[in-house]
Fold this protein.
Amino acid sequence: MPPLRPFHSPLPLVPARRRFVRGLVAGGVMIGLSPWLRAAAQGLADTRTGAAPVLSGTNIDLVVAESPVNFTGRPRMATTINGSIPAPTLKLREGDTVTIRVTNRLREATSIHWHGIILPYQMDGVPGVSFPGIAPGETFTYQFRLEQTGTYWYHSHSGMQEQTGMYGALIVEPREADPIRADRDHVVLLSDWTDEDPMRVLAKLKAQSDYYNFNQPTAIDFFRDVAEMGLSRALDKRAMWNQMRMNPTDLADLSGATLTYLMNGVTPAGNWTGLFRPGERVRLRFINGAANTFYDVRIPGLKMTVVQSDGQNVEPVTVDEFRFGPGETYDVVVTPKDEAYTIFAQAMDRSGFARGTLAVREGLEAPVPALDPVEWLTMADMMGAMDHGAMGHGGSAMGAMDHGAMGHDMPGMKHDMSGMNHGAMAMDHGQHAMHGMTGGAMAKPSATVRHARTEYGPSTDMRVDMPRTNLDDPGIGLRNNGRRVLTLADLRTIGGPLDPRGAEREIELHLTGNMERYTWSLDGLEFGKSTPVHLKYGERVRVILHNDTMMTHPMHLHGLWSEVETPDGQFLVRRHTIPVQPAQRVSFLVTADALGRWAWHCHLMLHMDMGMFRVVVVS
Amino acid sequence: MDHGSMNMQGGPAPADARDPHAYSNGLTLESGPYALPGPRQLRLSDEHAFGSVLLDRLERVYTKDGNATAYDAQAWFGGTYDRLVLKAEGDVANGKLEEASTELLWGHAISAYWDTQLGVRQDSGTGPDRTWLAFGFQGLAPYWFEVDATAYVGSSGRTALRLEGEYELLLTQRLILQPRMEVNLYGQRDEARGLGSGLADAAAGLRLRYEFSRQFAPYVGVEWAGKFGQTADFARAEGQRTRETRYVAGVRLWF
C-alpha cells in the first residue's frame, strides 16, 4: 500500500510555465482579481467548485449566468449554472415528471441538453434542432417524465458554453431499491478548462492544427531510434506517417498547453477529496464532462468494479483502469481500506491529468503516479486490421501484422476470455436471427466497407479499407501496460437488449476529417452540407460507424439508445455515447421509438462544431 | 504495406461509391417532419469564416554589399475550402523598396492537401511595375514538404514561373530548422527590370527559430542566392554580384 504523506504535496516539480496545467490550489474560487475584473464582477458571487450543491424533487430552477473563476492565476469569466462548477447535481427519481425552469442571464442564447435522458424531442435542448434555444432574459420550462435510472449529466448545447463551465451531474434514482449496493456515493465529474476564448482556440487550430501538440516526433527522437533499432528500421517507422502527412502523436487536438484538467471543478493542485470510512463500499459515478479530453482513470491500490455504463447497469467487471471520452459515464464500486488513495485521470495524450483523493478525512494525500509515456499511434490505428481473415476475432485481429516498425507496440494482444465468449454466444445468436425479419442476412453487421463518394475530396485525409472490428482493444497508450483495462468487449448490459428484434436494415456512416485543414465531418460532409438521417418510426435499424480518422470519436446519439453488438451480431451493451477508435468499425442497433428531430454528433466539442454532426429524423 | 497508402488517400471515387444522402429519404435540414419553422438556425463553424496572417519571414539581411530588410507574408480569410489569399514578398534597402511582389488570389481546395490559387500579381520596386495573372498550386507534398508553385502571364506575352519549397525540421518541440528554397523563371527578357529569359534567380536558405510560442519565433539563418543567365549579365553590367551569401536575423509570427 502506498505510504501516506499527509500535508505534503507529492506532485513533481514542474516548470513555471506549466503551472496552469496543475492549476491553483484554490482554483475556481475568485482570488486575486484585477481591479477591472473586480469591477466587472461586482454583485457576482464567486463560482463555487468542488462539491456541487444537490437539487432534488420535481420542481427545479436553474439560472445560467456569467461568474468569475480563477483556475490558473488568471481571472476569467465562466458560464455557470446556479453559480457553481460543476453545476448542481440533480437527484431525480424514476417515474417522476420533473419541471425544470432554466433562466438565461447571459447576453447570448443558451440551452441545456439532458445527456442520455430519453424524453420528447422538444425537451432535448439542442438549439436549432429541438427548439429555438433560450434567448437572453428568457426562461424556458423543460418538463419530462423519467423513464430510466442511472448516472447521467447535463450541459449547454449552445456555442462553446460547455467548455466554459456549463455541465453538471444528473442522477436518476430507482423507485425500488438500487441493485447496486453502496454505503457511500460520490459523483466524480471530470472536465477541462481553458483560459483562452474557445473560439480563438478553434481559430488557432484552423491556422495550425498541431498548435497544442508538444509531443511531436523530433530529430532527437529519430537519432535515438537510429541508435536503438538501426537506420533502416528508424526510417521504416516513419515512412508511412511522413508519406501520408499524418502525425503519429496526434492524440488530442488540445493539450495541457492550454487545458487545466478538473475533477469536480477542482484543479490537480486543489485536490478534490471524497470521504469514506475504511471497509465501506464506495460508489463512484464517473462522468466525462470535458469538452476535449479522453481520460484514462485509475485508483492505484484499488480494483474498480464497473457496475454501470452510460447509466445502464452492467454485469460487474473488475478492472484497474478505464478510458472514457466526453459524454461517457461509468459507475464503479471500490472498497478502500487504507487512509488515502489517489484518483488519477490522465489525459489520453499524456499532457496532464486531473486528480483527486479518496480519503478518510480532509487534507490527506496519496502518491500521484507519473504520467505514462507518450506512445505513437500504430499502423493498426491508421490502417485497421490489414488482414481480412483475422477480422472479428477479438485480440487476434492484429496477429497477421508483421512489420519491424510495429514490434514495440502491438495492440490488442489480450488472449483472454473474450474470444471464448464470442464463440459461446454465437449459439444463441442464431435464435435471435430467427426473429429478425430478414433472417440471416442481417444477423451480423456487414463487413463490406462502403466509402461515400464525398470521402474522396479535400474534406477527408484518409480512408480505411480494412477496419478493425474487434472491441477488446483498450486503445493507444493502454495496450500491454500491465494493468487490466476495461474495453467495450467487457461490457454486458444486465437484462439484454430493450428490443429483441434483429435489424431490418443497415446504415453505414463514416467518421471523417482532415487534420491539416482542421475539418471534421461524417461521410466527408460537414453538417452544413449534410442531409438528415431518416429513421422510420418503430423500425429496428443497425448503425455501423466506421472511423476513417486517426482519432477516437465519442459518438453521441440523442433521444434513442444505441445497443452495441459484437462483430458477430451479439448484444453487448446499451450506450448513449460510443467511442470509436481509429480505423475501427463499431455496430449497434437502434429502435426508432422516439418521434422528432435529434442530434447525432462527436462529443469532442470542436469536432462537433466543425461539422461532425448529423440530424436524425424519426417519423 | 505500400498498397495501403496508395488507396487510403485521395483518388477518384469509384462508380459504386455510396451516396452520402441515401439515408435522408429526401429530407433536408430545413424541411420535413419536425423541422423548426423559418430558415435554418443551427450553423456550426463549418459555415464560419476564419482568417490568419503569417509573417513567415520578417528579417534583416546582411551581405558584403550592404544590408536590407526583407518580408514574406501570407494572409488568408475564408472557409475550409475557399479562401481569399494575400501573398506579399519584398526587400527594402536604404529606405527604398527594391523589389516587391504582391498577389491576391482565390484559393480553392482540390484535394486533402492541395489548393489551387487563381488571381493577380503586382510587381513593384526598381524598374517599371508589372501586372500578372497568376495560377498555381499550394499545399503539402508527401514527407511534409510545403510547396508553392505558380505560373504567371503578363502583358506583351510575358510569362513567369515561381517555385517555392519549405520544410520544418523539429530539432526539439520548440527549436525548428526551416530549409527553404525559391526559384524564379521568366519566359522572355525584361531588360527594364533586369530580368533575362529562363532561370533568373534562385535562393536556398536555412533558418533556425525558437518558438517561444507557436505564434512568435525569432530566428537566425543563412541563405545562398544567385542570379543566372541573362539576368546575371544584367546584374554584372550594373556592378552587382551574381552570387552572394546572406546572413539573416528575424522573426516569424502569426496572428
User: Anything to note?
Assistant: Chain B has a mean pLDDT of 95. Chain B touches chain A through 57 residues (CB under 8 Å). Residues 96 and 198 of chain B are 28 Å apart (CA to CA).
